[in-house]
Amino acid sequence: MTLQASKGAKTRERILEIAEASVLAKGFGATSIDEVISEAGITKSGFFYHFKDKNQLAREMVKRYVETNDRLFDEIFARGRELSDDPLQAFLISLKLLAEVMVDLPSGHPGCLIASICYQERLYDREVRELTARSVESWNARFRAIIEEIAAVHPPREKVEFGDIADMLSCVVDGGIIMSKTLNDPHRLERQVLAFRTFVKLLFGG
């Protein structure tokens, strides 16, 4: 990568960081391109070199957010697998690691971009909404595969729909983010993840 290309990539990443922070803080509608340009210290033509319009910026924000979360899940669940061959124990370890990551984030979790888009979906184009839906479906499918693997070794103590248990983790994290921010207590999110961990342990534990 040339020096100019490297500089361009850094500028693009900086724009995405600023835009995401603004969207999480006050929503997509209240986030202006001029505001992003000003904070990034670039010209308007510099912005449009990277993004043709605000919806392309939104699409790239979602892709960046999803890639970041996918890497986080890959690392956490791979670590759980390394530490235990039993699928239940591996998942419980991974949930403990996830809780630790959540509490260690600066000033608590900054928010969920996916939730923000859902709340203001009419402001986004169809491609952004579809990308958001596919991302959530992908995460739920990931969690369901883990739950099904656990159930094959440790049958649940109550009759449950595995898809609902998988969806629950996403609901716990997003709900925990809202609770943490509303009550200004970042540890709420950590405790919610740990409460879900206890539920899984009781449901599948012998």
Please describe what this structure looks like.
- This protein is mostly helical.
- It folds into two domains: 1-52, Homeodomain-like (Arc Repressor Mutant, subunit A); 53-204, Orthogonal Bundle (Tetracycline Repressor, domain 2).
- It is 78% helix and 0% strand.
- It contains nine helices and no strands.
- It has helices spanning 3-26, 33-40, 44-50, 54-83, 87-104, 113-119, 126-153, 162-182, 187-204.
- The longest helix has 30 residues, at 54-83.
- The relative contact order is 0.11.
- The mean pLDDT is 88.
Concise structural overview:
This protein has 206 residues and is an all-alpha fold. It is built from 9 helices and no strands.
Which SSEs are present, and which pair or pack?
Blueprint: H1 3-26, H2 33-40, H3 44-50, H4 54-83, H5 87-104, H6 113-119, H7 126-153, H8 162-182, H9 187-204
Keywords:
206 residues; 9 helices; Arc Repressor Mutant, subunit A; mainly alpha; 0% strand; Tetracycline Repressor, domain 2; elongated; 2 domains
Low-confidence stretches: none
Structural class: mainly alpha
Could you tell me the number of beta strands? 0
Q: What is the terminal separation in angstroms?
A: 54 Å
Q: Can you say what the CATH homologous superfamily of the largest domain is? A: Tetracycline Repressor, domain 2
Give the radius of gyration.
Answer: 19 Å
- The helix/strand order is HHHHHHHHH
**Tally the helices: what do you get?**
9
Oligomer: single chain
The level 1 CATH classification of the largest domain is: Mainly Alpha
State the share of residues found in helices, binned by percent: over 70%
